[in-house]
């Protein structure tokens, strides 16, 4: 049995006391190192954030505390990181070390990024505390990039009838759903059409403009245009439809202008115009009609010999018969009626008579002769070349013979035109017009011959018709020339 003597007991107690003093002294020399906090959020535009490392006791000498960096690299630090470490200095006698983190600022839309900081290996008297890591979440402060949606009309230049009760829905398509609540402005316009008299729109326009609200997420916008029917020959109307303004996340595309044609039922099937192409050039003619369905304007252009164009305006008397045609500014042709027939036409310039034509008729009421007279320098009128017309029994012109008058002698024949082989098809575009609105060629000829200046050209004529029997094209050919006429209708 082990026995303790008083001396042995004293020695043992003394040893234990010395050991406790050493541990106390050692504990007092060790310094715990840890972060002051564990997390922080930092936005790109924030000032640099100060990160503190706390020491449990004042540093006995200047030290460097290594902080390991991982995660995002989208930051800067002071002091700067080297080889993924930031060495944080703590001066002698200080209780903390400080460094700063600044997020890199940019203009792009970025996700959140995480920066992780960890206290690295320490040497005595520094020892690791409990909070050895610190996380910084870098938040993006840039607004998300707005996806722009390109706005374009889905349709391309539509045609509706004035009696189309359903109207037409115009759809504007977006290349992507609208990212924001947006707006479209649509401008409506027409040279002849009057809003609320000839057409309406939904939603209701204000000062000729439609305002369309486009909620975020929408892929299309739409509006409707309706024609207003009437019983008058208002003529075809053209409505211009334009995307003029966009707002929000919308931008204009390339198909932002449309023209809606509203056909006039009262003019349906009437001649719109024609084009004649031949070796000497091109002739184009289009017609406009008044409310009663009569020719109101004749627009023409030609490249025959030289380029020129014009517009002729038709006027009618109280009986609805042609009374005047204005050729151009100040130049008029007035038609004088006697017993239901035009017997004379007078061409004036600024109300001064320049020429006139006297007309004769055969026993069947056909115009048999046109005899012009021209004003001379002395104010007198002298006869010019005149034309005699011959007809088949059905009233279709057969020949036109043009003569040059000779004083005190027989007139000289200078030109003959012959029309033969008429079909039973109605002729909406006569080749012969002696007096406007007076028909001298009711059917379609199959043969046409010109004799003048010692030369003869004999044209054989063929026609092309649509599925509904409407005349579309006339081709007249001879050995030296081909004339092609194409026809358009309302």
CA distance, first residue to last residue: 136 Å
- Report the top-level CATH class of the largest domain: Mainly Beta
Q: What's the main sheet like?
A: 16 strands, antiparallel, barrel
Low-confidence stretches: 9-18
**Overall pLDDT confidence:** 91
At CATH level 2, the architecture of the largest domain is Beta Barrel
Query: How many strands in all?
Result: 37
In terms of structural class, how would the helical and strand content be classed? mainly beta
**Number of discrete helical segments:** 1
Shape: rod-shaped
Strand order of the largest sheet: 21-22-23-24-25-26-27-28-29-31-32-33-34-35-36-37
Radius of gyration: 50 Å
Helical percent range? under 10%
CATH topology of the largest domain: Porin
Summarize the structure.
It is built from one helix and 37 strands. With 490 residues, the protein is mainly beta.
Overview of the molecule:
By secondary structure, the chain is mainly beta. It folds into 3 domains: 29-139, Immunoglobulin-like (Sandwich), CATH 2.60.40.2030; 149-263, CalX-beta domain (Immunoglobulin-like); 269-489, Porin (Beta Barrel), CATH 2.40.160.190. It has 1 helix and 37 strands. The strands form 5 sheets. It has a 16-stranded antiparallel β-barrel. The chain is rod-shaped, with a radius of gyration of 50 Å.
């Amino acid at each position: 049995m082990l026995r303790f003597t008083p001396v042995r007991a004293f020695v043992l107690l003394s040893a234990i006391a010395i050991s406790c003093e050493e541990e106390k002294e050692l504990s007092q020399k060790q310094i715990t190192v840890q972060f002051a906090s564990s997390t922080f959020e930092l936005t790109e535009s924030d000032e640099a954030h100060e990160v503190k490392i706390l020491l449990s006791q004042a540093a006995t000498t200047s030290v460097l505390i290594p902080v390991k960096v991982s995660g995002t690299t989208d930051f800067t630090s002071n002091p700067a990181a080297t080889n993924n470490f930031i060495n944080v200095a703590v001066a002698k006698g200080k209780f903390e070390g400080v460094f700063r983190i600044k997020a890199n600022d940019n203009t792009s839309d970025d996700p959140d990024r995480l920066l992780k900081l960890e206290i690295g290996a320490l040497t005595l008297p520094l020892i690791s505390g409990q909070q050895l890591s610190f996380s910084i979440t870098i938040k993006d402060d840039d607004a998300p990039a707005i996806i722009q949606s390109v706005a374009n009309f889905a349709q391309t230049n539509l045609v509706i009838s004035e009696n189309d009760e359903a109207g037409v829905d115009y759809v504007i398509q977006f290349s992507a759903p609208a990212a924001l609540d947006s707006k479209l402005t649509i401008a409506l316009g027409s040279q002849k059409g009057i809003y609320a008299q000839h057409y309406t729109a939904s939603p209701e326009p204000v000062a000729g403009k439609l305002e369309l609200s486009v909620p975020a997420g929408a892929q299309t916008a739409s509006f409707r245009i309706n024609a207003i029917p009437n019983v008058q020959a208002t003529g075809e109307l053209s409505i211009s439809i334009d995307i003029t303004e966009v707002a929000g996340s919308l931008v204009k595309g390339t198909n932002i202008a449309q023209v809606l044609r509203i056909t006039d039922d009262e003019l349906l099937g009437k001649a719109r115009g024609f084009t004649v192409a031949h070796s000497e050039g091109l002739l184009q003619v289009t017609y406009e009609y008044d409310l009663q369905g009569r020719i109101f304007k004749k627009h023409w252009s030609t490249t025959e010999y030289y380029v020129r164009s014009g517009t002729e305006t038709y006027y009618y008397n109280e009986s609805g018969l042609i009374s005047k045609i204005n050729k151009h500014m100040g130049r008029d042709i007035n038609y004088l009626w006697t017993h239901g027939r035009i017997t004379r036409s007078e061409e004036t310039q600024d109300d001064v008579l320049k020429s006139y034509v006297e007309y004769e008729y055969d026993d069947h009421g056909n115009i048999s002769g046109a005899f012009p007279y021209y004003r001379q320098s002395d104010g007198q009128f002298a006869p010019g070349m005149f034309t005699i017309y011959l007809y088949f029994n059905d009233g279709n012109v057969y020949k036109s013979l043009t003569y040059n008058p000779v004083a005190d002698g027989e007139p000289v024949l200078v030109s003959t035109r012959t029309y033969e082989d008429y079909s039973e098809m109605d002729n909406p575009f006569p080749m012969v017009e002696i007096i406007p609105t007076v028909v001298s060629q009711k059917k379609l000829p199959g043969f046409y011959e010109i004799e003048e200046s010692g030369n003869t050209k004999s044209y054989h004529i063929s026609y092309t018709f649509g599925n509904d029997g409407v005349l579309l094209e006339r081709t007249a050919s001879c050995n030296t020339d081909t004339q092609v006429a194409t026809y358009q209708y309302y």
